[in-house]
Amino acid sequence: MPRAILNAPALLRRREFLSGLFVLALGGFCLLAVGDLEIGTVTEMGPGYVPNAVAWLIVLAGAGMTLAGFWDAAEVEETVHWRPLLVISAAVCVFGLLVDRYGIVLAVVASTYVASFASPITRHRETPYLCVVLAALGAFAFVKGLGLAIPIWPR
Amino acid sequence: MDLLQNIALGMSVAAGFENLLFCFLGVLLGTLIGVLPGIGAVATMAMLLPLTFHLAPTTSLIMLAGIYYGAQYGGSTTAILVNLPGEANSVATTLDGYAMAKRGRAGAALAIAAIGSFFAGTVSTLLIAQFGPAMAALALKFGPVEYFSLMLLGLVCSMVLAAGALHKAVVMILFGVFLGLAGTDANSPMPRLTFGVDAMADGMSFVAIAVGLFGITEIILNLERDLTRIGAIPLRDLFPTREELRESAGPIVRGTFLGSVLGVLPGGGALLASFGAYALEKKISKTPERFGKGAIAGVAAPEAANNAGAQTSFIPLLTLGVPSNAIMAVMAGAMTIQGVIPGPQVMVEHAPLFWGMIASMWIGNLMLLVLNLPLVGLWVKLLQVPYRLMFPAILFFSAIGVYSIANASFDVYLAVMMGVLGYVMAKLGFEATPLVLGFILGPMMEENFKRAMLLSGGDAATFIERPISAGLLLICALMLGLMLLPSFAKTRQVALKED
User: Fold this and answer.
1) Mind telling me how many Å the CA of A9 is from chain B's nearest CA?
2) What is the pLDDT of residue B412?
3) Has residue B137 got a pLDDT over 50?
4) Cα separation of B146 and B452, whole Å?
5) What is the model's pTM?
């Protein structure tokens, strides 16, 4: 076994090792979802038969990749940029949180405002105009025009 | 003649006012997103899915199809003038297209790309009309055993043709299959794998998954890169010289046919077609050293091929009911939402829809020729819309599109989760397409697998005892065997390598 095993930070920069952990996490998630679903037999498969098999295949693949990662020294070339990742996710979540009760106008304005912090390329004096344009588009084109059943204003 | 009759039927459907209008809107929108780097056809089509609820099935499919092949035209404009692929499928065109533009022949390159695409679009439309019915007739003989093997072949092909590492594609397929299994399955009344979330009782929202993986992830990745400085090369005249026309005739024809074939393959489609055609031209050229330095054949062939491939990739979906790539998975979703089950029955039960859609492709190609040649200046201007204004708008369309499918906030959060998942996948070199294919094909495969097992009394030998199924499985095994050959693996790596 290579020396790197003693050096956890170095190991966590390895692309294949990390990929393996990622797949293990996916597999774990799947097993969790399967829970105690009925598995059944080959002729009378329960609802859990195929999901359970697929989940274990993913876990196995993840374990294999993680192990193989000890021998593959290639490092991750990409870096994670937290700002766009977190801000864009938050912006879309804000839309989901607000749209039900507070209507499309507020949801669009709030999420567009949040999204404006995702990147330094934004010019903040443009944001209010963008909010107005998009909110109007949502209310008129989507709700009025296409008849989507989304409230326009808070209810 | 049958073919003529069918085409006449199609024309009469496609030429209706509403269908013409939405065909036009589709190709217009397709050109738009094709020109703009940073937004792709899959995400656009997924976002617009809910909006097509209100249209007639034929009209909505005509529009969605228009977005796809329209994007192939638009992508070439950006590839040639800016050296960025407006659409992933135009990567091959950047190589020689941009080199031509730097020599002042941008107009000629654009004209050849449009003419080549039009020729390819026309031929592949005829090919679909010609071979579609035969394929569908074959598929009508398929039982659950054959269907299972066919879908397995589709997944194997998509693994082999995925750009990244093979084992990563396998994992993505498996995870996609798993996600696809969530919800209520056919044999039991209780929803499964939902963590008790009501919004998932009918399964995960396909739109949320597609928009998350292809839309939100893309925005996050684009904001990391510097997309602020896009400099387009100015256009002079649009007319290719007689010499250039003569040199591109052969490549266009060859590109069209190679593209048509590669488009039909499961896991294939436009991207593979354009690279394949480029490689072929370079190989048979008498002057291969000119490639990469502005050879017109290097523009003509991939552009013809990607358009041909884009269109023939409809064949497996419309005749076998098996989507061969992510775009076709979206189309399958659209058809299902409209109550049209993709498969061989479409041609019989929905003949006007089938032929109308095919005829609309040709009409759409004609529209695109007009849209892209005289109006190319307009599209170039569009490239100057800065990304800081574009990304909030894309985000807005994504959120509304996902939410309005079922008016469920959960779907919006699911799209965010998928966006984050897609981001991690991109950083670690996993591709999204196999996941989406697995998601669509997984539940269909489970269904057919269970039925096959029920019919055979649990005897797995049934898959190799039936000849068609055995043949399909043999092809699967051969493809996997090829992958294990080191020399093939190397070629694949070179051929499918992006950027």
Assistant:
1) 17
2) 95
3) yes
4) 9
5) 0.85
Helix axes B17-35, B41-48, angle to 10 degrees: 140
Q: Does A128 touch chain B (CB under 8 A)?
A: no
Q: How far apart are CA B256 and CA B454, in angstroms?
A: 44
Instruction: Determine the distance in angstroms separating the CA of A129 from the nearest CA of chain B, rounded to an integer.
Output: 10
Q: Identify the residue whose tokens are 């098999």.
A: A53
- Per-residue tokens: A98: 């607000």
pLDDT tens per residue across span B179-233: 999 887 766 667 888 777 877 877 888 889 988 998 899 889 988 876 555 566 7
Q: Which two tokens stand for residue B177?
A: 């299959």
CA distance B122 to B116: 10
pLDDT at site A52: 92
Q: Which helix (H) or strand (E) holds B191?
A: strand B191-192
Q: Over 60: is that where the pLDDT of A5 sits?
A: no
CA distances from residue B259 to B89, B94, B381 in whole angstroms, order as listed: 12, 18, 30
Q: Chain A, 129-148: which have a CB under 8 Å from a chain B CB? A: 130, 134, 137-138, 142, 146-148
Contacts across the A-B interface (CB distance below 8 Å): 172
Express each pLDDT in B313-330 by its tens digit: 888 888 888 888 888 888
Q: Which amino acid is at B296?
A: I
Q: CB B403 to CB A121 under 8 A?
A: no
B214-B215-B216 Cα angle (round to 5): 110
**What average pLDDT does the structure give for chain A?**
87
Verify whether the Cβ–Cβ distance B396 to A26 is below 8 Å.
Answer: no
Which of A55, A27, A63 lies closest to A39 in space, CA to CA?
A55
Which is more confidently placed, A35 or B253? B253
Q: Helical H runs in B36-143?
A: 41-48, 57-82, 91-102, 106-139
The 3-state DSSP class for residue B353 equals: helix
Q: Is the predicted pLDDT of residue B496 greater than 70, yes or no?
A: no
Q: How many residues in chain A?
A: 155
Question: Which of B166, B172, B185, B400 is the best substitution to test chain A (most A C-beta atoms within 10 A)?
Answer: B400
Q: What pLDDT sits at residue B490?
A: 64
Give the separation between CA B405 and CA B42, rounded to whole angstroms.
17
Q: What is the pLDDT of residue B499?
A: 36
Tokens 């085409």: give the residue.
B7
User: Given an 8 Å threshold on Cβ–Cβ distance, is A55 in contact with B389?
Assistant: no
The answer to whether the CB atoms of B420 and A47 lie below 8 A apart is no
Does an H or E element contain B183, and which?
strand B183-184
Q: Which residue of chain A has the CA closest to B195?
A: A33
- In angstroms, the Cα distances linking B483 to A16, A72, B324, B486 are 20, 20, 20, 7
CB B463 within 8 A of CB B148: yes
Q: List Cβ neighbours of A95 (8 Å cut-off, separation of 6 or more).
A: A107, A108, A110, A111, B399, B403, B412
What's the mean per-residue pLDDT of chain B? 85
Residue spans of alpha helices (H) in chain A: 8-11, 15-34, 49-69, 82-115, 127-136
Residue B425 has pLDDT above 50, yes or no: yes
